[in-house]
Design a protein that fits this description.
Layout lengths: L23 H8 L26 H6 L6 H8 L9 H11 L12 H9 L2 H15 L3 H32 L6 E6 L2 E6 L8 E5 L7 E13 L1 H4 L5 E2 L19 E2 L4 E13 L5 H9 L1 H4 L6 H16 L6 H27 L6 H14 L4 H18 L2 E3 L2 H7 L4 E4 L1 H5 L5 E7 L3 E6 L11 E4 L2 E2 L9 H12 L4 E4 L19 E4 L2 H12 L4 H8 L2 E6 L7 E7 L5 E8 L1 H4 L7 H16 L3 E11 L3 H5 L1 H4 L4 E9 L6 H10 L3 E5 L4 H11 L8 H7 E3 H6 L2 H6 L6 E3 L3 H13 L4 E5 L5 H6 L2 E5 L5 H6 L2 E3 L5 H38 L15 H20 L22 H29 L17 H24 L20 H8 L1 H19 L3 H5 L9 H24 L12 H9 L1
Parallel strand pairs: 9-21, 9-24, 21-23, 22-23, 24-25, 25-26
Antiparallel strand pairs: 1-2, 1-3, 3-7, 4-5, 4-6, 4-7, 8-26, 10-11, 10-20, 11-12, 12-13, 14-15, 16-17, 17-18, 18-19, 19-20
Helix pairs in contact: 5-7, 6-7, 7-14, 7-33, 12-13, 13-32, 13-33, 14-15, 14-32, 14-33, 15-32, 17-18, 32-33, 32-34, 32-35, 33-35, 33-37, 34-35, 34-39, 35-37, 35-39
Pfam family, one: Cation_ATPase
InterPro entries: ATPase_P-typ_cation-transptr_C, ATPase_P-typ_cation-transptr_N, ATPase_P-typ_cyto_dom_N, ATPase_P-typ_P_site, ATPase_P-typ_TM_dom_sf, ATPase_P-typ_transduc_dom_A_sf, ATPase_P-type_domA, HAD-like_sf
Keywords: ATP-binding, Cell membrane, Ion transport, Magnesium, Membrane, Metal-binding, Nucleotide-binding, Potassium, Potassium transport, Sodium, Sodium transport, Translocase, Transmembrane, Transmembrane helix, Transport
Amino acid sequence: MGIETSDAPVEESTEPPLCGLRPTSDFQTHNQPNIGQKPTLDSATPFVDPGTAVNVNVDEQVKQAYSISAETLARLLDVDPQHGLSSAEAAHRLERDGINKIKDAKGLSTWKILLRQVSNSLTMVLLIVMALSFGIDDYIEGSVITAVIVLNIVVGFVQDFRAEKTIQSLYALSAPTSNVLRDGNEQSMKAENLVVGDVVKLKVGDIVPADCRLVDAMNAAADESTLTGESQPVAKDPSLVFLNPELKPGDRTNMAYSATVMTRGRATGIVVAVGMGTQIGDVANLLRGSATENKDQSCVVRIWTSFKRGLKSVLGLDGTPLTIKLSKFALLLFGLAILLALIVFSTAKFDITGDVLLYGIVCGVAVIPESLIAVLTITIAVGTKAMAKGNVIVRKLSALEALGGITNICSDKTGTLTQGKMIAKKALIAGLGTVTVYDTTSPFDPFSGGMKLDDEPINTDKLPDSSQLKTFLRVIALCNLATVTTDKQGGNEGTTSSVTGNVPTWSAIGEPTEISLQVLAMRFNSGKPVILEREQQTLLAELPFDSETKRMTVIYGSQNSQTAEVFTKGATEMLLPLLDETDDRKLEIAEDVKTLAKSGLRVLCIAHKIVDSNDPEQLTERKLAESNLRFVGLVGLYDPPRLETADSVRQCQGAGITVHMLTGDHILTAQSIAQDVGILNSNLSTLEASQAVMSATEFDRMSNDQIDSLDKLPLVLARCSPKTKTRMIEALHRREAYCAMTGDGVNDAPALQKADVGIAMGLNGSDVAKDAADMVLSDDRFDSIVKAVYEGRRLFDNIQKFLLHLLISNIAQVILLLIGLAFKDSSKRSVFPLSPLEILWVNLVTSSFLALGLGLEEAQPDIMRRPPHSLRVGVFTRQLIVDKMIYGFFMGTLCLVAFVGVVYGVGGGDLGTHCNEGYNSTCDVVFRARATTYATLSFLLLVTAWEVKHFSRSLFNLDPSRHSGPFSIFQAVWYNRFLFWAVVAGFVITFPVVYIPFVNTTVFKHQGITWEWGIVLACVVVYLVLVETWKAVKRRFSIGSGKVQVLNGEREKMERAV
């Protein structure tokens, strides 16, 4: 037409390419790198029918069914597309090939869940201690430790079992039924009974039950986003044959793949793969790749590798950083327990009598926090329950705490960051101006948001009297197969949807592009039903969209009219040569397309003309019907972000978490969305933008060394394949990043499994993705991830608090017992400053509920304003280690002072005889000293529970952002009700333990005290002074958390304002 077209940097797809101008040859090369062609002999690349080839494997030909004609495939599979398989032949093939089912969901394994609870180092240590206790006939201590082990296992098992049951409820069959041609009759049957060679009938809304080579199709398109990540439906053309064996599934437009959804038209296909042989099956096999990746290794190497993997699993040395750290810590404690036992044995010159062995076991018990697993499990379970209320289902308890430490989130775009629903955002109407839709929150609701013409708001009650606008609306409404409806009268077209108490719910059927156009027409009260009723129009002809013409045309007329109207929409590069416009005007249109494309919008061209309704050629011949069209306008379509996404991304960035977008969409579409949600800064320089945004082709071309040499990994990766996403995760791991991957499609599943925390979508996610994920978002909302991060960080802080509390107690007991070796009775045997049951009572009863209360602490105000905690350091930070040693030394020393004060003060150093075994008349002093030491240790632990609520703030100024003033301590300790009552209960229960007859002397090996309470009170006061002094030093010299300023209410408001 005398006009040179140039590339517009926009996305193309196999449906009407909503894109900028592109020469046809360039479009074909870009969109279908392996060009489909009709099986003709004069093609540029000669077509060779594989059915005529010699010695070509039939199974391989069927596997590459896209490269042969449908007729050839039917001959290979011995099936008549008009008749289908016989029932007998289908039964034979079903028995031969098996059922059509993806083996992704393995179901619940009770034994595996149970083994998961035992597979940690601390449980192994407790089992050893339990065995030793029973071995020396100490049945009370052995029974108590057994109860601890059982409690740990039961609590963890119940929570994991519930989580697995919940996730199983999310599974559903991809295609429970299908319409199949058998014995010449169409019948409905279970999809799992399909076999290779079956002829399947597909229509709009059907889930494709198996991989099919299409035989015929009418205006057919399928949503393949769950498989390829492409957000737009892919138009199908059975007549095409593709000769390149490396053609990607997304470009095989003569195929329909299992679990994809028909969005338009109808089609018939021959099943070429079922079950694990489908494309989804390939992804499922990829998830299991780790089991076969070393198949080429020798038998010895495989056995050794399996042994190491199993040993690490049993010891809990695989998993998240916290579980690994705690398992290593448990092994360290076990080594320390052995060392303490050796010290005890050495003082007895290795004359190991039952009494010496018992003292060694007591020292071992003292160093092990027996309740740690139970407290940790219950704390995480409570956090999991809170997350479930926030629509996050945690499949593994470790995932919640792990999420609190992530540094990067790699997110899919379609359906995760965006709604997966198109909105007509801009419409350039010839002769009128540009209509812009803004502030819309519902893609299906024509009353959502507002509109303006150029810069002037549009009042729908007083629409411009413009013939151009009316023509535009008639084209987009009538050249459209979508329907948009509402469930309430208050929302009907032409009325307002703001009726109080009558808010409508809108729904739509059709492919997203046509839905968005229909909604735009309905905004002007010109939807298809309204126009047909108002103008009494009749459909005379429909020329459907196909992948070659990339346009759709309908022709309407009325009974009393001699003319008919042609309404056309389609790809601009295909419609532009057909327009009856000057070359200069076409150049202007091309520039307008580029302008819209630069905004990341997908662009459709709208055209119209009037023809003679009595001319049959104008109604039947596509070439004539679509010639000499008049340009009506352009429409820019937009897949809107979820409402909560931008704020969620902003919160992630404020928390030091980098958000990456990994999508199958075109680079400019992805870049536009990334800017809208805040992943990309719109003020980036050209160089920064080139590094932040990258195509998957460019990324995949780079070696690992080249990727590692980048200053920063790209924030946006477009046109991603599963391999691209997995390589991105691996690149982050090489940078010692800890990453979460979100996704909903089958193509996301390998990366979900590879990521440190995999997060699947519950509503629109595939079964394979859910099976690979650690967490599932039941509402598919991105802001639920922020809630999970918030909860994970709160959990991490609280784990540090109760871990510090438990370890302070253990260190104090070790100091007390080691120095206690010097206390010899008249028979030269060491006397226990604390009896074994006193130690277990303190560790299991007193400390456990206090630690659990600390696990329920609310988050600090600045929790989402600080960077993620170091995963290399984990929970055992330098501050925690120093604090536990200092506080443990304070506590152990004061407990020792209490024991010595009673024995060597009033008691004159009389340690009696055989007082470790039980009470006799010589043990009064020792038993009173033990009671004093026990009470001192208990009360100091109660005070410590409140002191460790914050590592540097004073107990008398714990939470200035919520409570201030001289009595703030009472408000602060009352704020956590569980911890408050745990302290009260610990205080009250000390007295019956000390005073109940028989129980005190026989079980706990102590007796009631009187004046000794003065020593206990003095030790508590001194301990408070020492702890507060150390905290003051930390604040004064900015040690640990002492250098972090407290965020008060005014400062928070200022930050929010900024």
